[in-house]
Amino acid sequence: MTLSLHLVDSTTGKIVQTWRFKGKDRVVIGRGFDSDIRLADSSVSRLHVEFVFDQQRGGWILRSLGRNGTHIEGEPVKERLIGDRTVFRLGSSGPQFLAALDQKTVGDQDTLIGEIDAGGLECLVVNEQQKAEEVRQIVEGDRFQLLKERAKLLRSLQKTPPTEELSLPPSDAQANNIQPKTLP
After folding, report:
1. What Rg do the C-alpha atoms of the chain give, in angstroms?
2. What is the pLDDT of residues 18-34, one digit of tens each?
3. What is the spatial distance between Cα 7 and Cα 38, in angstroms, rounded to a whole number?
């Protein structure tokens, strides 16, 4: 059975990168050189998590091997039979993944919002008051005001028809008053 692992941007819920493993019965995520998915993240151990296909149970087993653990639905797990579209995190705040068993296709533009229990995704909650304050600071900032003025100028130039005719500089022949010679 094919196992697909999707790295998920925890702030947007968008899939950032996908790895598909077909015909393998063991897949390793970690910092180590021999990992199938190698991550340069200080919260990830050299051998952080492994997936092993269990013929008897007919599914993939997630085994947490890292010092910071692996979390599913916000809870640390040591070993678990995973289902299709299981979301897990390396450590309590490390990289987040979606494990798909290829029963459904997950596209690059798919999001996880509404398809998983959002209770474990506190980082997706938007503080509306903070957002409004940050937008206000941007809009009132010097950089934004400069861009706004430049955009206004460009729009006014596009609406105004040119008033001067384009004149070309004289050629050397015209400038030196040289007349073409006629051949006899």
Report:
1. 30
2. 999 998 999 999 999 99
3. 12
- CB contact at 8 A, 36 and 28: yes
Which residue spans within 65-172 are E strands per DSSP? 70-72, 75-77, 79-81, 86-90, 96-100
DSSP 119: G
Q: Is 48 exposed, middle or buried (0-12, 13-18, 19+ CB in 10 A)?
A: buried
Which residues on adjacent β-strands are paired with residue 4? 20, 100
Q: Any residues with CB less than 8 A from the CB of 78 and at least 6 apart, and which?
A: 63, 64
Q: Could you give the CA distance from residue 119 to residue 116 in angstroms, rounded to a whole number?
A: 9
Q: In the sheet that 15-21 helps form, which strands lie side by side, from edge to edge?
A: 15-21, 3-8, 96-100, 86-90, 70-72, 75-77
- What mean pLDDT comes out for the span 73-79? 93
CB contact set of 130 (below 8 Å; sequence gap of 6+): none
Residue bearing tokens 């400069």: 146
